[in-house]
Amino acid sequence: MLKIENLEVSFDNGETVVNAVRGVSFDVKQGESYGIVGESGSGKSTVLRAICGMAPTTGGRILLDGKPLPDPRTPDFYRRVQMVFQDPYASLHPRHTIDSVLSEPLSIQRFDRRDQRIAQALDDVGLGQGFRFRYPHQLSGGQRQRVAVARALILEPQIILLDEPTSALDASIQAEVLNLLERLRSERGLTYVMVSHDLAVISHMCERLLVMEQGLAVEELTRADLRARRARTDYTTKLLKASAGYTATE
Fold it and tell me: Which of 1, 12, 26, 199 would you call most buried, defined as having the most Cβ atoms within 10 angstroms of its Cβ?
């Protein structure tokens, strides 16, 4: 469904060029949950931003259903692909009510039945209509992230890009949000691409994963490989050892 071919992303500030992603390739099947892991600065979040058109693609191709994505992305792309960002405190406008946050994408895409869609979206993420006219500062971190998930789902996309969706939350709230995401994927047949530094999260959520280092794709593992700590490269072996304290959950 989603195919990345030799992706290159570079940032040029006029004095230096930073090659953030270098020749990365992978593919994601329809209905699959695919993970990307690596240290900070490995380029994993940049890959998601490149897919969304938020980072400059300087080489390679990104294909959706076999068709290269246009640049800039079209409104149809954003109906099919949505992103949930890492920080629920930064991803919601502090002066907009939740109703406004959820209304905006519906208005841009000219959806009908907006009131019903907003009510359904809030119910789907376990909040309910009592949250509709609150402001972000009146919500907990977990509630804000549920709003972010509702905003991504309200356009009924097929693919959700998840950039460290629980890293800003405490452990108990992390589990709630992850279980919510897993339930929604099962119910709606969604396809996920999830970036995380937490191998326990990836083990729980993803069937396959890509390991990245300094902008490069190091190797691809299955969930079984991750749980059995089977690695073919020294970097992945070190990454697994550094995460030795994590518990792989079924």
Answer: 199
| Residue 172 placed within a domain | yes
| Rounded-to-integer distance, Cα 55 and Cα 43, Å | 11
Q: How far is CA 239 from CA 22, 33, 39, 60, 236, in A?
A: 20, 21, 8, 27, 5
Q: What span, in angstroms and rounded, lies between the C-alpha atoms of 5 and 60?
A: 5
Domain containing residue 228: CATH number: 3.40.50.300
**DSSP-derived secondary structure letter, 130:** G
Q: What is the mean pLDDT of each run of 10 residues along the chain (250 residues)?
A: 96 90 96 94 95 94 95 92 87 92 93 93 91 94 92 94 87 87 93 93 94 96 91 91 61
State the Cα–Cα distance between residues 148 and 39, nearest whole angstrom.
Answer: 25
Let me know if residue 81 belongs to a domain: yes
Q: Give 186's contacts (C-beta < 8 A, 6+ positions apart).
A: none
Q: Tell me if the pTM is above 0.90.
A: yes
Token pair listed for 231: 């690695």
C-alpha dihedral sign at 36, 39, 42, 45: positive
Per-residue confidence (pLDDT) for residue 206, from 0 to 100: 96
Can you tell me the distance from the alpha carbon of 43 to that of 53, in angstroms, rounded to the nearest whole number? 15
Residue 143: give the domain boundaries. 28-38+65-209+219-242
SS3 32: coil
Query: Does 50 reside within a domain?
Result: no
Structure tokens at 107: 């208005």
Specify whether the CB–CB gap between 197 and 37 falls below 8 A: yes
Q: Quick check: is 23 in a domain?
A: no
| Predicted pLDDT of residue 245 | 58
* C-alpha span between 217 and 44 (Å, rounded): 9
